[in-house]
Amino acid sequence: MKEKIGEILRTKTLRQSAITTTGIIINGLIGWIFYILVARNLGPSGFGIFSVATATIALLASIFNVGVDTGLVRFVGKYISSEKEKAFRFMKLGLKIKILSGFLLITFGWFLVPFFSNTVLAKPELLFPLRLSLIGAFGWLLSFFVTSSFQAMQKFFSWVGLNIFMTSLRLFAILGLIYFGVSNVNFALYAYIYSPFIGFLIGITFLPKFFKVKNEGSVAQEFFHYNKWVAVFTVIAAVSSRLDTYLSTRLLTLSDLGIYSVANNLSSIVSEIVLALATVVAPKLASFVGNVDAKRYLKKLQLFVLALAIVGVIFGIPLSYYVIPKFYGLSYVPSILPFSILLVSRAIFLISVPVHTSIFYYFSKPKVFVFVGLGQIFLVGTLGWYAISSYGYMGAAFTMLVGNLFNFVIPGIWVLNKFRRK
Fold first, then answer.
1. Helices 84-115 and 220-251 meet at what angle, rounded to 10?
2. Which pLDDT score, from 0 to 100, does residue 77 have?
3. Taking Cα atoms as reference points, which of 422, 55, 19 lies closest to residue 243?
4. Is 309 within 8 Å of 408 (Cβ atoms)?
5. How far, in Å, CA of 74 to CA of 68, rounded?
6. pLDDT in tens, 61-120
7. Do 175 and 37 touch, CB atoms closer than 8 A?
8. CA nearest 273: which of 202, 355, 173, 346?
9. Mutual orientation of helices 127-152 and 195-203 as an angle, nearest 10°?
10. In which domain of life is the source organism classified (predicted)?
């Protein structure tokens, strides 16, 4: 067992993960301070509105990304060493798609937001914040192009540095607003959405001069053939992962929504660790050509994430009894119980990293998650409506626990069967 642990600690993946995880911890700490300041200054109701708006930014950015980021990691990672010009064509095509997608998002979304806020969510006060979300999502689309390109080229220091820079800009902005006594939802959103645009403009200067390449349309067929299932899955996954937020928005008061949002936000540090791991693992898995190496790699990775998940839950839940009242304020003490459930839910999500990334990048079967995602939407939608209506934000937390368990077990069975057949 000691030799096994030593072998895991010596792997290149762990060293790269250490870079990204350290960066994620720093980035997460800065982001955590930002959210604490917003939550304390806006109160539960205002923070509830802010959280719906930021969740909408993430949802729209995922949907209108149409699988470009995953395609960049897949194809740029595959060709950057052997066929650099071809890799640059994928980058140029990906950026063009994102810009077009962003303009379509703002154009059509501006007129659809009133129906969504007034009729679907039954919260008219969300109208302007959700319109700001359209602009914020466009910024995310652009900044994710840069970070995905860094990931594909395995430039993890650049990936970490840009993320920390953008999060720091948000923190400085909210500190400035508080200093000048300007603390409302809209200004907090302004502080949130401007940094990705600046991050994109600065980050793109650190990429190779890919925009000089010609004939990027020649790789469109290969790009879209892979991305079509990724795009469909991304829409489904984006909806299923945030369905609890929108059900809670519809069924809870804004104050209760703010309580749940603090629990959700604090537990999301686990998702940041997942992102750090996936950033390293994805291009590595894409490079494997044989089952023996892939299985050996995935076994080590599974042990690593399992240990992280166990340690996180053991220390995270007791720590929340101090952190939430001390930093967020006494009005958020009810967030402790839903946080405990959500932390276990996120731990299951962390454990599923080897399964999910192997399906995407080793087996290249993103369509598997289309069916898994549809099942999760049905499960979360039906269970969530009943659970939130009956048990409030505790029902929302329990729904996410069940949803993440489903999202781990079903793909896990698929991967095991796939390896056994080969």
1. 30
2. 80
3. 55
4. no
5. 10
6. 999 998 888 888 888 888 777 788 888 888 899 999 999 999 999 999 999 999 999 999
7. yes
8. 346
9. 20
10. Bacteria
